[in-house]
Amino acid sequence: KRILQCINSPFCVRMEYFGKDNSYLYFFMPFISGGEMFCHLQKMGRFKEDLAKFYAAQVILGLEYLHNVKLVYRDLKPENLLIDHLGYVKITDFGFTKPIQSRTYTFCGTPQYLAPEVISGHGYGFSVDWWSLGVLIYEMVSGYAPFDAIEQMTMFRLIMQNRYVMPKSFSAPLQDIVRKLLELDLTLRYGNLKNGAADIRNHVWFQTIDWQSLFNRRVPPPYIPPVSDFNDVKQFSTEAKYSLLQIANVNELEEEFKDF
After folding, report:
1. Does residue 240 have a pLDDT over 70?
2. Which of the pair, 88 or 16, is modelled with greater confidence?
3. Contact 39, 81 (CB under 8 A)
4. CATH number among 3.40.50.620, 1.10.10.10, 1.10.510.10, 3.30.413.10, domain 2-215
5. Of 50, 75, 129, 199, catalytic
6. Residue 138 CB burial class (10 angstroms; 0-12, 13-18, ≥19)
C-alpha cells in the first residue's frame, strides 16, 4: 500500500483509493481500457521499430521515475504494461517492487526476464530493470524473448552466459541498444553507469524521440487500441468468472490491519 501511495508518474498506474472491511482489503486502480501490451503483441506478431521505440521510451521514463524514488521494479514484461485508450503506456503490477538503498537479494521476477545478477544470488540493484528493458525491446521487435528454453535451468544458463541470437532484421542502432542493455558487465550496462538512464535516452536509436513532449504525452502514438472510449472493455477477456464477496460479520484480523 505504501508503495502504491507514493507512485505518481504519467507512466505508472497509480492507486486512486484504498479501503477495508471485515474480510477484505481493497485497492482501487484506474481502468486502462487499451489492455495489456502482451495481447497486442500476440495479435500483431511483432511491433515495428517505431512503435517499439515509442513504448520503450515511456517505459524508460517510468523506470527512471521509480529509481529516482528508490524503488526497483523487478517484473518488467509485456503482461505488466497497459496501453490506455489514447495509445500511451503505463507500468502496472507492483507486486515485486521494493524500496532499496543499495542492494537486495530476493530471487523474484519472471524467469525469461531475469537479469544474471538476480539468478547468481550475489545481490543486485536497479540494474536488473535495465536488463529487463533489453529483453522487452528485443521481444517487442522480434515477437519472441531472447532467452528461452523448455527447461528453466537451461534458460538460466543461457542468461548467465548471455547466449542469444540477434535477429538480422534489427537495424544497427537497435542491435546496439539491445547489446548495451543485455550486458553482463554491470560497469558497462547502460542505465547502470554514472549518467544513469540518460545514456539510454541519448542513444542513437532514440534520437527521434522528443523526451519532453513524450513526458507531457504530446507525441502522437503510432498505434491507438481499437476502443471507443476509456470505458470500453473489449480488450479484456470476457471469460473471467465473478462471484459475490462473502463478508464476515466480525473482523478477526482487526489488530493486524488496524493501520491499513
Report:
1. no
2. 88
3. no
4. 1.10.510.10
5. 75
6. buried
Q: Where are the domains of the chain?
A: 2-215
Task: State CA 106 to chain mean position distance.
Answer: 18
Closest CA relative to residue 86, chosen from 40, 42, 33, 123: 33
Global pTM exceeds 0.85: yes
Characterise 191 by phi-psi region: left (phi > 0), alpha (psi -120 to 50), beta (else): left
Q: Is the pLDDT of residue 2 over 90?
A: no
Which positions ≥6 away from 39 have C-beta within 8 Å?
A: 235
Indicate if the pLDDT at residue 241 is higher than 80: no
- List pLDDT tens digits, range 94-120: 999 999 988 999 999 999 999 999 999
Which is nearest to 27 in space by CA: 12, 10, 15?
15
Residues 6+ apart with CB under 8 A from 178: 134, 137, 138, 146, 166, 170
* Contact predicate 132/113, CB 8 Å: yes
HSE (side-chain half, CA atoms, 13 Å) at 196: 11
Q: Which residue has the cell 532484421?
A: 169
21 catalytic residue (yes or no): no
